């Protein structure tokens, strides 16, 4: 896959903290209930921490109580890329930034949350940066 933002691995390592690099570039997962946006209710736009692409808005964020920020829909259909993930002995759908290919989290469907899409984009806080709305 070719992305609009592509950088050599050394540059990603230089621009991201070790924890950010592990999640965004190596598909690690931050520990549950530790991310800065897990319980945030601030209004604004959540962008990719690696490249700045706008990914999600606070209007689609909901309290899933799963330990990570949850959204029921991306900001734009083409903002994220969905990729089959067969790691860890299960089949899941990985969510990546469509602009730079960075790992964001996973999307799950049919869990019964009272949302318009019946989807839960379970996203690592460390993959995101919130730009709060101007009051």
TrEMBL record:
GO terms for biological process: protein repair; response to oxidative stress. It catalyses: L-methionyl-[protein] + [thioredoxin]-disulfide + H2O = L-methionyl-(R)-S-oxide-[protein] + [thioredoxin]-dithiol. Pfam families: SelR. Keywords: Metal-binding, Oxidoreductase, Zinc. The keyword S-adenosyl-L-methionine does not apply. Its cofactor is Zn(2+). Its EC number is 1.8.4.12. InterPro entries: Met_Sox_Rdtase_MsrB (IPR028427), Met_Sox_Rdtase_MsrB_dom (IPR002579), Mss4-like_sf (IPR011057). Transmembrane segments: none annotated. Residues 9-133 form the MsrB domain. GO terms for molecular function: metal ion binding; peptide-methionine (R)-S-oxide reductase activity. One of its GO terms (cellular component) is cytoplasm. PANTHER family: METHIONINE SULFOXIDE REDUCTASE, METHIONINE-R-SULFOXIDE REDUCTASE B1. This is peptide-methionine (R)-S-oxide reductase.
